[in-house]
Every structure is written in C-alpha cells, then in structure tokens.
Amino acid sequence: MQVGRETRGGRLVLTPQGSLLCAGPAEQFEALLQNVLAEGHRHLIVVLENVPHVDSGGVRALVRGHLTAQRLGGSIALASIDRRVHRILTMMRLDMVFPIFATVEAAIAAEPAGT
C-alpha cells in the first residue's frame, strides 16, 4: 500500500492511497501506524480522501492506532474523508471517537502540536 508521509504544523500527516481492506492493505496500514507511533510521533493526521472503501480490517487499523496513540499521550485525527468512508465511520459511531476535519489545515489548527 502506498502512503504519503509529510510533517505539517508539527504533526505527521499520512495519506493512504487505495482501499483499506482485510488481507493486505489494512494490515499494512495498521503496521505503519504502529511503527510511526513507536518512532516517537504522537499526533497524527490521517487523510482519507483517496481511500474509497474500508472494511473491518481498515476500521481495526484506525482503532488500534487510536488506542496506541492515546496510551502514549497522543492522538489521531482524520481529515478530508471520502463520503462513503465517512458514512461507514458515522454508522459505527467512530465519529465520536476520532476528531474529524474537512481539511488538513483545520486539523492542524485544532490538534495539539508535537510529533
């Protein structure tokens, strides 16, 4: 799975490309989240505009990343979410767990600084 990676406003911004589905991409993305948190990044923004679908594996990757970040005193915010993925996250009430922003800039303005 291809994932863009850049630091903006003191936060690591991850931009996965493609669906986060079981048996491959979701597990790869989950491993990436765990690795960047282990490297010391604490406040992440995940841009989901190029992720047209998620299944249970994609949801698991996001939730496990959130739990790890929270345990380490960090956070994961979601930004620019594809409308279909947003609908799934809302149905699962994960919009109550993750801060969701329309843009990366809005997430940067609202989230705590730090890496």
Description:
This protein is an alpha/beta fold and 115 residues long. It has a 5-stranded mixed β-sheet. The radius of gyration is 13 Å and the shape is globular. It is built from 4 helices and 5 strands. It has helices at residues 25-38, 56-71, 83-91, 104-110, and strands spanning 2-8, 11-17, 43-47, 75-79, 100-101. The mean pLDDT is 94. Helix 1 (25-38) runs parallel beside helix 2 (56-71). It has a single domain, classed as STAS domain (Transcription Regulator spoIIAA, 2-Layer Sandwich).
Topology:
Layout: E1 2-8, E2 11-17, H1 25-38, E3 43-47, H2 56-71, E4 75-79, H3 83-91, E5 100-101, H4 104-110
Parallel strand pairs: 2-3, 3-4, 4-5
Antiparallel strand pairs: 1-2
Helix pairs in contact: 1-2
Tally the structural domains.
1
Largest sheet: 5 strands, mixed
Helix and strand content put the structural class at alpha/beta
CATH architecture type: 2-Layer Sandwich
- Shape from CA axes? globular
Q: Classify the beta-strand content into a percent band.
A: 15-25%
Q: Main traits of this protein?
A:
alpha/beta, Transcription Regulator spoIIAA, 5 strands, 40% helix, 115 residues, globular
Tell me briefly what this model is.
It is built from four helices and five strands, in the order ββαβαβαβα.
